[in-house]
Amino acid sequence: MTTTTVTRSAPRRRRPAAGAVSGTSRRVALGVLGAAIAVAIWYLVAVSGIVSGRGVPRPDEVLSAGWVLFTEQDLLFDIRVSMTRVCIGVTIGSLLALPVGFLLAWYPTLRAMAEPLVNFFRALPPIALVPLVIVYFGIGENARISILVYASFFAAVIVLFEGISSIDPLLVRATRVLGANPWEVFARTVVPASVPHLFTAVRVALGVSWATVVAAELVAAQRGLGAAIQDAATFYRIPDMYVGIAMIGATALLMDLVLKLVQSRLTTWQEKTR
Amino acid sequence: MTLTAEANHATTSDRIVFDQIGKHYARGGDHLQVLDQCSFTVEPGEFVSVIGPSGCGKTTLLNMAAGFTAPDDGTVRVGDAVVTRPHPSRGVVFQQYAIFPWLTVAKNIEFGLTLRANRRPRAERQRVVRRYLELMGLEPFASAYPKELSGGMRQRVAIARAYATDPQVLLMDEPFAALDAQTRERMQELLHETQLTERRTVLFITHSVEEAIFLSHRVVVLSARPTGVREVVDIAIPAPRPAETRLSPRFVELRRRMEGLLRSESTEAEGGPR
């Protein structure tokens, strides 16, 4: 080497290369193929009559039942009711979990004291608390929301404090060396480093709350997806029950997708692990 | 590169003095003396490397100068003050880069100047950032995130960030150890050039004899545990040192001598010659 000039190459930005695009479309195609196979098996099971009693409705029966439910019985309203409940619950639960997560991650003593408790409450299925909640809050909207807040809080808090306490101590050290006071260490390093963990926490809370809201509505609610399924069951409208169940999955998928999109927008700096 | 006013940046207030340093650990009843009566001085504006057998406590010495660890015996002084905690007047470059992944290259370099301890007006910050982007050959990467950079480029960001807050002394803990051989040589040359114009007092930890000779005015060779100073070698090779310096007879001779010193230390550590 005879020169000490610094080489200046263009930044290695991640461009959507041809290979990457075909990779994405391939994944989508495979996903569609998997769903198609599942529907085909469902169809075969339905027409074969293996399932005794009232049998399994065919996919096309469920589809037309769905059409009727959406156009004539306003199933969308039920979905909206359930989603609203979940959004309120997750928002309150996560907002409460945020400061608690930071405190537990920051103070090992506090964490040692609280961790068994958090694990205990997290292990309780939220739906098991329904009778207790009815005793205290009655059967109104407050009762349902409070269960969701409970479910979201414990799901989120554990993800948060584990994520926050895994922040690289070297980054904290580097911040201090540059002259940061404790508040600046928190605001300028701990908080931004926690953002990915916050998203993970919200996604986990969303999953748990969604499962809980439907279960809660099955037991005690006038409207909402769970109530709609319960309603269909009362009148033996089996295809309608299938529509409701399919909507539980579809809505959950949609909410997670939206959250993922927001996350990738806000944390472009993050290294992709995949 | 022309010499600027910064060439005389170093003043007498930034002499680093290691005075009779001792450090020991109690490990399962065993008393392990790591450092014992270790004394040396880094003069203002001087580049001093510390080299020694692995596990001899090189990094511990740097951590003491940074204020991360306290010595059990003796004191570390910078200027007239005994080091007790991290301070922005002592910049640190870590082996694992420790740059902030959520900030762009330019924002990483600017970071220290936005903290209350050494806050500068925006115009001055931008001037400093531009200057170090240029010096480190990082201009094309100014708005890139660390994940888009190679290891060598990441370390340039870390070095630029350390210089940017204008510390009296710079402490570098094996900053090039994680890089491949070619990148490593290029980084040594870059750092040498930077020191020609941005002269600071530098304490440089390394396990590479070649690196120590190429960069330093003097090299402190440590002995095996309990570690003291085995010898301080004067590297009387005038600056600027181009890449070919590594092939000069003087360089090769120094290298042979220091490798011999180190070899005798590590065989002693393993229980004498075989």
From TrEMBL, chain A:
Domain ABC transmembrane type-1: where?
Answer: 79-263
Which is one Gene Ontology cellular component term of this protein? plasma membrane
InterPro entries per UniProt: MetI-like, MetI-like_sf
Q: Which SUPFAM superfamilies match?
A: MetI-like (SSF161098)
Membrane topology type, per the record?
A: Multi-pass membrane protein
Give the keywords, sorted: Cell membrane, Membrane, Transmembrane, Transmembrane helix, Transport
Q: What is the protein named?
A: ABC transporter permease
TrEMBL record, chain B:
- Out of the domains of life, which is the source? Bacteria
User: What keywords would UniProt list here?
Assistant: ATP-binding, Nucleotide-binding, Transport
Tell me the CDD domains matching this sequence: ABC_NrtD_SsuB_transporters
Question: Could you identify this protein by its name?
Answer: ABC transporter ATP-binding protein
**Any idea where the ABC transporter domain is?**
16-249
Q: Tell me the lineage of the source organism.
A: Bacteria, Bacillati, Actinomycetota, Actinomycetes, Jiangellales
Which is one GO molecular function term here?
ATP hydrolysis activity
